[in-house]
Amino acid sequence: MVVAVAVVTVRDLFSAAMLFAIYSLLSAALFAVLDAGDVALTEAAVGAGISTILVLAVLTLARRYEHPVKALHWPALSVVTVTGICLLWAVSDLPEFGAATNPVHQHVAPYYIEQAYADMGVPNMVAAVLAGYRSIDTFGEVVVIFAAGLAVFSLLSAGPGRQASSPEEDE
Amino acid sequence: MRDNGILRIIARFLIPLIMLFALYIQFHGDYSPGGGFQAGVMFAAGWILFVLVYGMPAGLSVIPERAMFVLSACGVLLYALIGLLGVALGGNFLDYAPLLDDPHAAQQAGIILVEFGVGVTVACVVMLIFTMFARRRSQFVGEWKPGDHD
Predict the structure, then answer these.
(1) Which of A140, A143, B98, B110 is placed for a possible disulfide with B89 were both Cys, Cβ 3.0 to 4.6 Å?
(2) Is residue B149, in this structure, part of any structural domain at all?
(3) Model confidence at A85, in pLDDT bands (50, 70, 90)?
């Protein structure tokens, strides 16, 4: 929480990237404490590792410091406040944390927990759900990642722009 | 950075371990936490460490950029082909049961192959994005003050 506030307030983008990595690592530790090994692994590898590296790669192209903001932006502040109040109000309606009778534990989760090994023969239930029961969703995710790669390629291969003088030709 | 002896030795020691761990996470993903996404990211992280220490030309001589493009498409196509193979053998799309006789072995084979496709795509896309940002940086080097923070 402290780290999250620090990420928002710090003006030095390099420190912000580092603090964000720390934030991801702390969330990974939290997931690990909650016995969610798959999510913890993903958060540590993707959140703390790769996204930090990519943000740093972007930072080598951009300026290091944010533009200072002169005054408060009242419409934005009011929108954020109203949204926050609505979300807090909705939180009071949520079912009790971790209770076994919650809707999320009543739908398909019991079937997965009981039948995953019998259906798939795969001990890691997360893998069974991800690549077995929900494999079409996962296929969509892979296509999204591939599309992201293509999008970055098409944006960055457009040439350095008019203010930069590039002696070498683009391939 | 390339003249830093400690960094070179440590990287030479660590990079194979990172890649081995990535492969372990890839192929052991149905027994322990892990899978294609994490393994791909970790493999790409090992390669990025190699690039940071030894330089981009050395990194690209290991995996050329064109190979990254082709392989990232191949991962998606492998996933889709496994799905279509199930259709061709008389099941639904991404139904692994018709692939082999034993239903459990079929599910495991399907999951492992599909996760391998995921891993290949993720690793190649991450390496590709990093390569393109680094190239973009090299085009700008004259304009920005070098050695800000890298």
Answers:
(1) B98
(2) no
(3) very high
For domain A1-67, the question of CATH label 3.40.1010.20 is answered with: no
Asked if residues B26 and B114 have their Cβ atoms less than 8 Å apart, the reply is no
pLDDT score, position A83: 93
- How far off is chain A from B123, nearest CA to CA, in Å? 10
pLDDT at A69: 67
CA distances from B75 to A45, A85, A145, A149 (A): 20, 44, 11, 13
Interface contact flag, B125 A148, Cβ < 8 Å: yes
Indicate whether B147 belongs to any domain. no
Average pLDDT on B15-36 reads: 83
The domains of chain A are located at: 1-67, 100-158
Contacts of A58 in chain B (CB under 8 A): 133
DSSP B20-51: HHHHHHHHTTTTSS--HHHHHHHHHHHHHHHH
- At residue A65, the 3 state secondary structure works out as strand
The pTM is what?
Answer: 0.74
Tally of domains within chain B: 1
